[in-house]
Write a structure and sequence with these properties.
106 residues, mainly alpha, 2 domains, 64% helix, elongated
Length: 106
């Protein structure tokens, strides 16, 4: 009710979606979410977008780390809901990102 009231009182359309969080988060999780992200604008990926990046990272692991040929790696992943072109485009971007970023925490 609080988040719905905030939406109605503020006349900020993005708060309409926020008021639905109360149905999927418990009180402590909701308060933690608000503490971490309060005042920020975020965009939430779709499940399909999340699956695509997970599959792209798996492809990276198979090809770059396990040294499996690309064609065989793509067959192992059996990416029925994605176009190979989309995965390969993402793969190229991931390769560039991972090559230029230092993940070590010294």
């Amino acid at each position: 009710m609080i988040l719905f009231a905030l939406f109605k009182m503020s006349d900020i359309p993005e708060y309409a979606t926020l008021s639905e969080l109360v149905y999927i988060l418990d009180k402590d999780s909701l308060l933690n979410f608000l503490e971490c992200f309060g005042g920020l604008t975020i965009k939430v990926p779709t499940i399909k977008e999340l699956k695509q990046i997970i599959n792209t990272l798996l492809l990276y692991q198979l090809v770059q780390i396990e040294k499996i040929p690309m064609k065989e790696a793509l067959e192992q992943l059996s990416l029925k809901e994605f176009q190979n072109k989309d995965i390969l485009d993402s793969y190229g971007k991931i390769c560039g990102i991972l090559e230029s970023y230092n993940f070590k925490r010294d």
